[in-house]
Amino acid sequence: MKIEITYNPINVSNTFTNGDIVSGQVSVEVAKDCQISSFYIRFKGKADVFWSETHGQTTHTYHAKDKYFSVRQYFIRDSNNSNVVRPRIHVYPFTFQFPLQNIPSTFTGADGTIVYLLEAVLSRSMRMDSKKSTMINFVGRGDLNPVPGLMEPQHETMDKKMKLFTSGTVAMDVNLEKSGFFQGEGLKVKAFIKNDSSREIKPKYCIYQKHSFFAQGKRRVHTKDLIKEVGKPIPAKASENVTHVIAIPQDVEPSILNCSIIKAEHRLRVSITVLQKPHVNSMLFSAWSYNLWCFSKGVSYVHNT
């Protein structure tokens, strides 16, 4: 017996969002007469977190689940096992709809996943259930989880006194034009940098992702740099107005802010490095960090922290 699930894509990227209809069919290839007590397809969304930690001779495991929805559509429901299915390929159409409620986007991380799937389950008397499943890529609508002040400018100022390999101070006044950005749009960072130190300095820019997983009162965090760029050097005892544009990746993953056990963020870090000697690696002295949140419709949101 062979079970196959196919669904109809609604766009080129094969993604679904809140309220979208998922329709398709389940086909069952039967080689000989068989009695089926039940046959249904289940449409569900859930989040799972799991990791283990070893301390000495002891290993602790942490696990958490979050269920968003689970609905079924029955094709066969016969408690008396009197339904006999003849040898051939049987096709059963189905239709579901994604909830309009605020649910997180599909996500795969080191210690957790958020999945939406279709699962067909066929039950026969005195036999194990036959199952077949297929994943569906869901991208939640950003307007269901709005962040206040998206179009407001962001501003941060910091002074740093140099102590190692150099003397003097470095000051940076950082400005972002707004808080909301589209994927692929240029993230413009404007800064006034005052280099009162005795060495040449360089501004550096980094967009990185941060994944947090929560289970049984514990948290597990993973970070990864996505984009690293370096600005033009600023000589000692000089001040400059600097503008640097970073292209937010077209394929940046959506942020997860509406899941109780998984959080996915993106951050922009602006830092200053001081050149120790020519052709020698720079030393990091100070950094300014901004949260970069990415939602559906390709919108990214930035907030300073």
UniProtKB/TrEMBL annotation:
Domain Arrestin C-terminal-like intervals: 166-289
Entry-linked Pfam families: Arrestin_C (PF02752), Arrestin_N (PF00339)
GO BP annotation list: nervous system development; protein transport
Signal peptide start and end residues: none
Transmembrane segments: none
GO cellular component term, pick one: plasma membrane
InterPro entries: Arrestin-like_C, Arrestin-like_N, Arrestin_C-like, Arrestin_domain-protein, Ig_E-set
Highest taxon of the lineage: Eukaryota
Protein family: Belongs to the arrestin family.
Protein name: Arrestin C-terminal-like domain-containing protein
Organism for this UniProt entry: Poecilia reticulata (Guppy)
Lineage: Eukaryota, Metazoa, Chordata, Craniata, Vertebrata
